Amino acid sequence: MSRRRRAVAFAVLAILAAFVAAMIANGYGSSVIRGYGPLRPVVVLTRALRPPRPLGPEQLAEALAVRRIPERFVPPGALASPAAALGLVPAMPLPAGSYLLAGQLRPPKPHRAAISVLGKRRPVQIAVSGAEALLATGRPVSGAKVDVVVTTEPAGAGRGRTYIAAAGVPLLALGPGEEGPVPGGASVATLGLTRRQALRLIEAESFARKLTLLPVG
């Protein structure tokens, strides 16, 4: 056999070997998926986190990353997106390399300075939407002034109504809603409200499509 024919034969054998290896790897991957479930995104700490500092956009970018692991190995309560941790506080020291769980985070406590501005107002918790926009500014939310905007459901063929139900009220705290820290989910805002404002917003929660916070200034 000539040198050229030997080279061609070796090339063909190499291609066949690569093809067989790919088939084996593909079969192994399929068996892993069947045995352990599809891959799911989970948030992993690339740097250690400590309380009591709330997690802002910079901390999310520097200390959190997303990995994909088989569904069977995803721990209960594991976050699927770093955005779900925005504005929350680690409840304990969290080591690098660990998964980030919803139970390891808590809403920030209202500052005394924020509570002192209440006067005749009282702290009231209201479910709101779009709170991520406030947290994404990187500024402390406790003590900020906000407008509470109510958007109602459409009546018949008409349009829904949008109006400011409470203007310039102090925001004392902002945390996850009943579904926990999930991206796009409802948040719970603790607002300093007069009795009249509180009754108006509590009533709006029962019929409105959503309540939105808009920063003042």
Shape: elongated
Number of strands: 9
Rounded to the nearest angstrom, the distance between the terminal CA atoms is 85 Å
Average of the residue pLDDT scores: 76
Query: Proportion of β residues?
Result: 25-35%
Note down, in words, how this protein is organized.
By secondary structure, this protein is an alpha+beta fold. It folds into 2 domains: 39-106, Antifreeze-like/N-acetylneuraminic acid synthase C-terminal domain (Type Iii Antifreeze Protein Isoform Hplc 12); 112-215. The chain is 29% helix and 29% strand. The protein has 5 helices and 9 strands. It has helices at 3-36, 57-63, 112-116, 132-135, 195-207, and strands spanning 39-45, 64-70, 89-90, 105-106, 122-128, 144-152, 162-176, 187-193, 208-215. A 5-stranded antiparallel beta sheet has the order 5-8-7-6-9. Strands 1-2 form a two-stranded antiparallel ribbon. It has a two-stranded antiparallel ribbon with strand order 3-4. The longest helix has 34 residues, at 3-36. The model has no long low-confidence stretch (mean pLDDT 76).
Structure summary:
This protein is of the alpha+beta class and 217 residues long. The chain contains five helices and nine strands, in the order αβαβββαβαβββαβ.
Task: Provide the fold topology.
Layout lengths: L2 H34 L2 E7 L11 H7 E7 L18 E2 L14 E2 L5 H5 L5 E7 L3 H4 L8 E9 L9 E15 L10 E7 L1 H13 E8 L2
Antiparallel strand pairs: 1-2, 3-4, 5-8, 6-7, 6-9, 7-8
